[in-house]
Amino acid sequence: MTELDEDYTIGRVNLRDLPKVSLHDHLDGGLRPQTIIELADEAGVDVPESDAAALGDWFLTQCNAGNLVDYLTTFDLTTSVMQTADALERIAREFVLDLSADGVVYGEVRWAPEQHLARGLSLDQAVEAVQSGLEAGVTEVERQGRSMRVGQLVTAMRHADRGLEVAELAVRHRDRGVVGFDIAGAEAGFPPSRHRLAFDYLAQNHLPVTVHAGEADGLLSIESALFDGRALRLGHGVRLAEDVTIERADADSTYVTLGELAEWVKDREIALELSPSSNLQTGAIAAWGSELADHPFDLFYQLGFRVTVNVDNRTQSGTTLTRELSLLADAFTYDLADLETFQLNAASAAFLPLEEREDLADVISQGFEDAESYGA
Description:
Structural class: alpha/beta
Protein name: adenosine deaminase
Low-confidence stretches: none
Number of helices: 16
Number of strands: 12
Mean pLDDT: 95
GO cellular component, one term: cytosol
Helix content: 40-55%
CATH class: Alpha Beta
CATH architecture: Alpha-Beta Barrel
CATH topology: TIM Barrel
Number of domains: 1
Strand order of the largest sheet: 3-4-5-6
Cofactor: Zn(2+)
Strand content: 15-25%
Order of helices and strands: EEEHHHHHEHEHEHEHEEEHEHHEHHHH
InterPro entries: A_deaminase_dom, Ado/ade_deaminase, Metal_Hydrolase
Family: Belongs to the metallo-dependent hydrolases superfamily. Adenosine and AMP deaminases family.
Oligomer: single chain
């Protein structure tokens, strides 16, 4: 049985049927294991397992190291089979089909074109190949009677020196599938300020930005994402909880104080792209515990932050957005109204024009209403 065969329910409502928005979902973290095996054979790449189920288990084992650096090593395998236009098109098409099967109606797919040039592709050719695959996937979804929309988040690797070049790439393709920009990779030691010229260029060209920050580094990284990166969303942002002080006066009274940074993020409704399973795997929540119930997600939610739920990397975490919602519902006794709030938060934070975000919110609300009526 695969993860997509699992049933996750609240009452009589199957969570997979609920409309969802996916904001933090890496293309090179969402390959089907069978696809990796087939593409690796074509490219002459060695794989640790020749059976799809065993390869899926291998990813989970490798990614449970408890730190981001070891977690990222698994991408050496996935990116190695993503070096041709045909491979990128196939992977992007399957990615869309998997999103749709998960109930996603709007998804932003992030990936770093600079990591896919080993076999002669240019940056522009790589972006065009992925866009072709995404469009083919959407067409196939529509043939199946469903509707969805996807956009590319073009990403620069934070440890490299191609930030401005990749920012210019993103702007060139803004009317051909690209909706925003990101930086990713090892966070500690590579602050967003390293790519200040890229962020200046993006601001001048009015392309929205999300930045990985507050996953493997702390408050200074988040500050740099907001100041240097002008980030409208925080990729993970989980360590913003370090700027939240909780004091228990007695058994019945608890006082919570937000630092200036946390207050800024909350007041300006800067979305947190939280990824529960991934945050456990990388040790991002180690300061608060090692179980999902220790995740600051509920703290942020109760304090009024704009929290969103994401998978980060479907293959590395062996997960789906449906599963992440179910895990949170079990850990914090959330109901369908809570899950709808998370999707509306994501719709509001999507890199779409205002009117289209409002339409997306209507799709979410109607979908939840229909599901609840059907399950009543």
